[in-house]
Each structure stands twice: as C-alpha cells, then as structure tokens.
Amino acid sequence: MGKKPKDISECKHPNSRKTIAFVKQMKKESNREKAKLGTAIKQNLIAERISWFREQLIALRQAENITTCAPEHISAMIELYLTRFDEELEQIKLKRSIGMRKNNRQHAGREDVIKMTLQRETQEYNTCGLEIPDFTNALNVDTVCKWEGELRFLQNIKLKRFSKQALNTGTKK
C-alpha cells in the first residue's frame, strides 16, 4: 500500500481511496478539536462559578469560624450569586437612559447574555438545583478554600446540586 498523503494537494483524484481516507481523517481531527474546545469552555464556566463561591466561603469563614455551611448559609450564598449581575444591568440601563436616542441598544448583546444566564440559573435553582461545591462536607470546604483556580485541580472539588426546596426543608438533593 502507498503512503498516506500529508495534505490535500498530494491527492491525485478527488474520488480516490487516498483522498477519501484523508478527508475522513481530517473530519475526525476536526471533531476531536471541537470536543476539546467544548470541554474547555465548560470547565471554565464551572471554574468561574466555583471561584465566586470560594470568595464568598472565605468571607463567611472569616466572619464566622465555621468548618461546614448550614443550609441557610448555602441558600443565602446562592441568592447572592443570582444577583451578581444586578450592578452591571443597572449600569447598562443608566447608559441607555443617558443616550436618549431611538433604538439605543449599544450593550444589547451583553445584556441579553446576562438575562439568559440569570433566567437559566434561576430556573435550575428553583427546579432540579444549582450545581455548586458541597459546603456541607468539611473536607470539601478545605479543598475549595485551598484551590487557587487551576483547572487541573477542578476534579478534586465535589459538586452537589442544591435546590431551593431542598435547602428550605433542610435536606440536600
């Protein structure tokens, strides 16, 4: 059998077996890269969420000397998390009111992304639960506090879904 072509210019005929094999290999590599990119984006979103909750946990641990969080603390943190964009939305609204032009939607893209994110997260929290680090486990609380934002250590943090109903009744989902 002949050698595999390194690029498309080495292929003699568009319907040859070598060309078809080369195109198949290129599609396979392309799909692999798309999957890696999707995984990286998902990890970054989870890391941002954990980082936000880590900051709140550290502040809570300094205020009250605790090793684990009660359902009331977790519920308060999630409610605060769901209002994290309020200040930015106010700024966008203020800039829009200053312009006084018709169809002044200068920051429409950012505003729409924020609103969709908040809607999705609020719906998750009210139904199946929002996935956050498990602060009911003392070992996991220490792991989150020691975590410095590196994606490779993200797998060491145990996540748990907390719903509004479960937190109000005092149980975990």
Task: Write a brief caption for the model.
The chain has 173 residues and is mostly helical. It is 62% helix and 5% strand.
Keywords:
flat, 2 strands, mainly alpha, 5% strand
Indicate the topology.
Blueprint: H1 17-63, H2 71-82, H3 86-99, H4 108-126, E1 130-133, H5 138-146, E2 159-162, H6 164-169
Antiparallel strand pairs: 1-2
SSE order, as H and E? HHHHEHEH
Helix content range of the residues, please?
55-70%
Radius of gyration: 24 Å
Main sheet specs: 2 strands, antiparallel
Overall form: flat
Distance between the termini: 58 Å
Instruction: Compute the average pLDDT.
Output: 87
Oligomer: single chain
Q: Helix segment count?
A: 6
Beta-strand level of the residues, as a percent range?
Answer: under 5%
What's the arrangement of strands in the largest beta sheet?
1-2
- Number of DSSP E strands: 2
Give the uncertain stretches in residue-range form.
none
Q: Structural class given helices, strands, pairing?
A: mainly alpha
Description:
The mean pLDDT is 87. The chain is mainly alpha-helical. It has six helices and two strands.
